[in-house]
Specification:
By secondary structure, the protein is mainly α. It has one domain (about 5-210). The protein contains nine helices and no strands. It has helices at about 5-20, 25-35, 40-60, 65, 70-95, 115-125, 125-145, 145-175, 180-210. It is flat, with a radius of gyration of 18 Å.
Length: about 220
C-alpha cells in the first residue's frame, strides 16, 4: 500500500468511526460549552494517548487478547459504570444551576477535565476495543510493512480524523453560543449527560451478555 493511500484511507476510515455519536463526542460538546474550541484538541489528546498505547500493544501482537469476549465483557461492565458516573455528574450540575455561559471555564459539569474525559470515555467503550482488535489491527499490520514511517502515517491519519470531527462540533457550538441562553445551555448538558447514561446501560448490558455466553 502506498504511503499516501495508507494515510488517506486511515483518515477516511477513522472519520467514519468518529462521525458515529458516542461518549467522546458527548463530552467534547459539554466541555466546549464551558471552555471553548480548545476542548476539542484536549479531548482528542486524551483519546489519542490511549490509542497510541493500543497501537504499541498491537505491534507486539496483543490483538487477540483485546478481541477476547471476556475482555470485552469486563470492559463493557466497568465502562458502563464510568459513563453512569460521568453522565450523572453532568445532569446534577445542570440541575443545580451551576452552569452559565457567562462563567465559561469556571467549573461545573464533570469533575474531570477534557483530557481526562477523553481518556475515560475511550476506555469505557468496549466497541472501541473491538474495532482496534479487528480493523485497527489490520491497519497496523499493513502500516508495519512501511516501517515506523508507515505506522506514524496511519496513526496520524486516524487521529486527524477524530480531531477534525471534534473541531467541527466545537466550532459549531461556539459560533452558536450567543444564541443559547443559560436555560438552553443547561438543557443541552442534561441531554448530553442522559446520552452518556443510556450508552452506559447499553455497554453494561452488552458486557454482561458477552460474559454470559462464556458460561
Amino acid at each position: 500500500m502506498d504511503l499516501a493511500i495508507l494515510f488517506s484511507t486511515a483518515f477516511i476510515v477513522g472519520l467514519s468511526g468518529a462521525l458515529m455519536p458516542g461518549p467522546v463526542t458527548a463530552v467534547t460538546a459539554e466541555h466546549t460549552l464551558k471552555k471553548g474550541v480548545i476542548a476539542a484538541p484536549l479531548v482528542t489528546l486524551g483519546h489519542g494517548l490511549i490509542e497510541i498505547m493500543v497501537v504499541v500493544l498491537l505491534i507486539f501482537g496483543l490483538g487477540r487478547f483485546m478481541a477476547a469476549p471476556e475482555v470485552a465483557g469486563v470492559i463493557g461492565i466497568i465502562g458502563g459504570a464510568v459513563l453512569i458516573w460521568m453522565g450523572w455528574g453532568m445532569i446534577k450540575s445542570a440541575r443545580g444551576g451551576s452552569l452559565s455561559l457567562r462563567q465559561v471555564g469556571s467549573g461545573g459539569g464533570n469533575t474531570v477535565g477534557p483530557v481526562s474525559a477523553g481518556v475515560l470515555t475511550t476506555l469505557a467503550n468496549p466497541y472501541w476495543f473491538l474495532w482496534w482488535a479487528t480493523v485497527g489491527a489490520g491497519y497496523v499490520a499493513l502500516s508495519q510493512q512501511h516501517g515506523s514511517l508507515g505506522v506514524l502515517l496511519f496513526f496520524g491519519g486516524h487521529i486527524l480524523a477524530d480531531l477534525a470531527w471534534l473541531l467541527v462540533i466545537a466550532v459549531f457550538l461556539v459560533t452558536g453560543k450567543k444564541f443559547i441562553s443559560d436555560r438552553i445551555y443547561s438543557g443541552v448538558v442534561t441531554v448530553l449527560g442522559a446520552f452518556l447514561m443510556v450508552m452506559a446501560v447499553y455497554f453494561f448490558w452488552m458486557g454482561v451478555t458477552w460474559i454470559g455466553r462464556l458460561g
